[in-house]
Design a protein that fits this description.
alpha+beta, 2 domains, 4-stranded mixed sheet, two-stranded antiparallel ribbon, 15 helices
Length: 412
């Protein structure tokens, strides 16, 4: 599997170079349009400076910022032992150096994402709704998919590519605002000769064209990379779990949800396993979507029948696409390994009823918000908010009237 990572890194490098060229060309053209002599070099330095500042901030604090924006809270194994157990299993399957930190997002909409520049400091965040809706096999499929992003070094590349995209958009915005303030740079052309003035007009037209096209091209490139990596993460997840149906069923349940993920936005949307931003009344063109069609991903997973290896996923992918499209790097397909598909036992297939799911979801969301639960002698479970025990050391059961002592809540 190390061949897969190396091939992935090589492709990432060249795609990253492509975005870098766009950034430098944009900086050079804009600099030249404002300052005819030596402005191009200055523009390149400014573009690099903006990108470096954004990169330093994102690498140092990016994960924490994304988790905070998403409303994710780090939890202990006591909150959801099964989730910790599944994450540990996938850590072993992937051979990661450390167990990713585990976060829960206090939202009913089912979804999940992974973040972290390196596997050593990665994190997996899942919503409370995901934990209440999925059985163990389905949860394992989702965690395996997010672990695959960490294993394949997708997160680091997508973070840097996203920063590059942000820098290109930012420089274009600055340029158009600067043109409006300076009157389109006419003050420079008035001091120059007719021929140099015409040359300056050509440079300005080129700069305007690049300022318009560069963000579009960079975004299309970023989205194309993002979609391909979702397929690769699905393939890697199948290999980790040896059970394609687990992930397929999880994707189906997540896509069927009508709940909005309120904490998601255009910045964080590409990170999730399923696009959380639903477009009402229209279909997003494949070219501008952050994710492959969910129905297609499910069909590919359910077409896998001979094994759970990379070759099996590629075969299923080509069958559904009806053409040979390389998703798995060639180096990962040279080894004809046989990975048997796991047959789940009855216990792992069991699913809670809708009523039980709502109760589980409510309890989980309260636990994440530092509620504690006190069992009364009559059997009733009393839910106690954070800090209650500090001011009121006793609570009266609303059913039987029994008075119980309350310990001060601990923060998760």
């Amino acid at each position: 599997m190390w061949e897969l990572i190396r091939a992935n890194q090589r492709k990432s490098f060249w795609l990253f170079i492509g975005m870098s060229i766009l950034l430098l060309l944009l900086g050079y053209a804009i600099g030249s349009s404002f300052i005819p002599e030596g402005g191009g070099s200055f523009g390149v330095l400014v573009a690099l400076g903006i990108w470096m500042v954004l990169s330093i901030i994102s690498i140092a604090f990016g994960s924490n910022i994304l988790l905070a924006i998403s409303g994710a809270k780090e939890v202990t194994s006591e909150v959801h032992p099964q989730l910790f157990n599944v994450v540990e299993e996938m850590k072993i399957a992937a051979g990661l150096p450390n167990i990713p930190k585990i976060y829960i997002i206090n939202e009913e909409a089912p979804n999940a994402f992974a973040t972290g520049v390196k596997p050593e400091n990665s994190a997996i965040a899942v919503t409370a709704g995901l934990l209440s809706k999925l059985n163990r096999d389905e949860l394992q499929g989702v965690v395996a998919h997010e672990t695959a992003h960490i294993f394949n070094r997708d997160i680091r590349f997508m973070t840097l590519a996203g920063i590059m995209l942000g820098a290109i958009v930012l420089i274009s915005e600055i340029y158009f605002r600067g043109m409006w303030i300076s009157g389109g740079g006419r003050r420079y052309s008035s001091k120059s000769s007719k021929s140099s003035g015409q040359g300056q007009v050509i440079i300005m037209i080129a700069a305007i064209a690049l300022a318009i096209l560069a963000p579009i091209l960079a975004r299309l490139l970023y989205l194309a990379i993002s979609r391909k990596r979702e397929y690769l993460a699905d393939a890697t997840a199948v290999r980790f779990t040896r059970y394609p149906e687990g992930l397929a069923s999880a994707l189906e349940k997540i896509s069927e949800s009508t709940l909005d993920l309120r904490s998601a936005n255009k910045v964080t949307a590409p990170m999730y396993i399923v696009n959380p931003l639903k477009e009402k009344g229209m279909k997003i063109a494949d070219l501008t979507s952050t994710h492959p069609p969910i129905s297609e991903r499910i069909r590919i997973l359910r077409s896998i029948s001979q094994g759970a290896g990379f070759i099996d996923y590629q075969t299923a992918f080509d069958k559904i696409k009806r053409k040979a499209t390389p998703i798995i790097p060639a180096s990962a397909l040279t080894n004809p390994e046989k990975v048997e598909i796991k047959i789940p036992g009855e216990a792992t297939v069991a699913q809670e009823s809708t009523k039980q799911q709502k109760r589980t979801l409510g309890d989980l969301m309260m636990t994440v918000n530092n509620y504690s639960f006190l069992a009364c002698v009559c059997g009733m479970k009393i839910k106690i908010p954070a800090g209650f025990g500090t001011n009121r050391p006793k609570v009266t059961c609303p059913r039987c009237g029994h008075v119980s002592a309350v310990a001060a809540n601990k923060t998760i």
